[in-house]
């Protein structure tokens, strides 16, 4: 893909600059990521026991809900708002134009900005630096308030009451549907250089054919591997299973990941043909649920057999919902697991542990199709009740422009949603950024429809019964049918 080829060249160029004393030498092996604690980045998705929303991540950590990216269905077309995006990823010129960082809005007496990190967090510090640059250029003072607990609940009350912020976030893109419904977020007229984003990213911030957020960071899961144990990451499913089993010996495992985690399963579910809600013409049809179609049945059989038929062999903890995240992450950090499927939030812990790791796309699935993992987007929004919408949008555009994003990347340690920022030398010098973007090209965003909150628990219950319970083939379809009916019933009660 031209995106990957270009970013690879950019990595080489940046490395040369670093060697010559220029640029930023930060790489996955030396850079500091945003989080070290398991779950501080991507918290567990939708525990079947609690029904909480899944999370991919990100800058919201410390008590705020984060995004889970789920599916519109493998092969579902991007919304019309996304149709022109990402010429690079789609096979265009290989580069994308940088988004202008020149402030254009009016001066305001003050702009209030709610973020989800405390003042000493690296993300907050990065945002503060950009805000100060904007103030210096425009004369508009920016008050940043860190709301680290119950962010969504508080803004859902304060926003419609006229007591909310002018600028919101970054927040998980799957909140935007609720923010539109509750009059928290304002419509964004257009994205600067929309072709600078992957179509999936634009789709993520689009609600009923209108934009409600400006993308800042992107997240997904991919194959993370220990380079001291795996020299060449597998590209096909057969290679993956055989490599993992060959490495499973002497108390170490070739592969482990939180097998019951809906979010982590997404790449297999979508790649095999399942989906959550079908999307057409920029709108989700929540009555069309693909968790029990033929592809979904095949996906859950594969997931079940990965453990029970040892293809590949994995430790028992992968089907222990309460401990699977912490234990598998700890095993990877200890050099006891060669490969896992996880996201960029794991990089800091692996670096701290001294693991020589790499990132590669998830191997091609048994049906010959690429894995299609969930893609999460962290976005900025403008308050619907703001009295300074024009100035607020100008600040949002300034924060999400190419140079601003590139300068903040070290603080957030996430792949930029804006492709031109990923091409900046200081970002491209980090080799895993291009891989995360490559994997995201085959992914789908989690539906930002409020009905998504009704999906997680029935889905999790079915996962536990099928995988942990080793359900026979003839029980998988009924279990999934029951889960889908529970989702439909729950949605009906909210309408």
Explain what this protein looks like in three dimensions:
There is one protein chain. This protein has 495 residues and is an alpha/beta fold. The chain has a domain at 222-373 and 449-494: D-Maltodextrin-Binding Protein, domain 2 (3-Layer(aba) Sandwich). The protein is built from 17 helices and 14 strands. Helix 2 (122-138) packs antiparallel against helix 12, helix 7 crosses helix 8 (294-308) and helix 16 (456-468) packs antiparallel against helix 17. The termini are far apart.
* Largest sheet geometry: 6 strands, mixed
- The CATH homologous superfamily of one domain is termed Periplasmic binding protein-like II
Overall pLDDT level:
84
Counted by DSSP, the helix tally is 17
Looking at the overall shape, the CATH architecture of one domain is 3-Layer(aba) Sandwich
Helical fraction: 25-40%
> Based on DSSP secondary structure assignment, what is the total number of beta strands?
14
Rg, Å, rounded: 21 Å
CATH class category name of one domain? Alpha Beta
Shape verdict: globular
Strand content: 5-15%
């Amino acid at each position: 893909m031209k995106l990957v080829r270009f970013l690879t060249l950019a990595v080489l160029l940046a490395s040369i600059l670093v060697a010559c004393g220029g640029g930023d030498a930060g790489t996955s092996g030396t850079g500091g990521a945003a989080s070290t604690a398991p779950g501080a980045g991507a918290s567990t998705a939708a525990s079947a026991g609690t029904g909480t929303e899944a999370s991919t991540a990100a800058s919201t950590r410390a008590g705020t809900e984060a995004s889970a990216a789920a599916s519109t269905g493998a092969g579902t077309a991007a919304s019309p708002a996304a149709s022109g995006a990402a010429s690079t990823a789609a096979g265009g010129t290989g580069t994308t134009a940088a988004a202008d960082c020149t402030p254009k809005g009016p001066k305001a007496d003050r702009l209030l900005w709610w973020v989800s990190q405390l003042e000493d967090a690296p993300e907050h510090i990065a945002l503060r630096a950009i805000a100060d640059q904007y103030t210096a250029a425009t004369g508009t003072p920016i008050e940043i308030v860190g709301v680290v607990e119950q962010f969504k609940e508080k803004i859902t009350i304060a926003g419609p009451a006229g007591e909310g912020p002018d600028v919101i976030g970054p927040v998980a893109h799957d909140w935007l549907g609720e923010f539109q419904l509750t009059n928290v977020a304002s419509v964004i007229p257009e994205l600067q250089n929309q072709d600078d984003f992957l179509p999936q990213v634009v789709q993520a911030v689009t609600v009923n054919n209108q934009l409600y957020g400006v993308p800042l960071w992107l997240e997904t899961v991919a194959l993370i591997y220990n380079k001291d144990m795996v020299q060449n990451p597998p590209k096909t499913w057969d290679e993956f299973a055989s490599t993992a089993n060959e490495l499973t010996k002497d108390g170490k495992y070739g592969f482990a990941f939180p097998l019951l985690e809906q979010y982590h399963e997404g790449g297999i579910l979508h790649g095999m043909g399942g989906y959550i809600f079908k999307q057409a013409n920029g709108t989700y049809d929540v009555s069309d649920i693909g968790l029990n179609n033929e592809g979904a049945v095949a996906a859950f059989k594969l997931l079940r057999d990965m453990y029970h038929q040892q293809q590949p062999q994995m430790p028992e903890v992968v089907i222990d919902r309460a401990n699977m995240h912490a234990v598998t992450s700890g095993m990877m950090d200890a050099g006891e697991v060669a490969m896992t499927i996880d996201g960029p939030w794991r990089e800091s812990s692996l670096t701290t542990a001294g693991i020589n790791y790499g990132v590669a796309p998830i191997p091609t699935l048994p049906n010959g199709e690429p894995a299609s993992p969930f893609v999460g987007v962290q976005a900025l929004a403008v308050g619907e009740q703001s009295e300074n919408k024009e100035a607020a949008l100008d600040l949002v555009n300034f924060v999400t422009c190419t140079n601003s994003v590139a300068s903040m990347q070290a603080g957030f340690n996430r792949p930029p949603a804006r492709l031109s920022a990923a091409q900046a030398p200081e970002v491209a010098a980090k080799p895993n950024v291009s891989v995360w973007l490559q994997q995201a090209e085959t992914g789908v965003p989690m539906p930002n429809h409020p009905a998504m909150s009704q999906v997680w628990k029935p889905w999790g219950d079915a996962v536990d019964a099928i995988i942990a319970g080793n359900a026979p083939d003839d029980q998988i379809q009924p279990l999934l049918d029951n889960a889908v009916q529970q989702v439909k019933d729950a949605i009906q009660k909210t309408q």
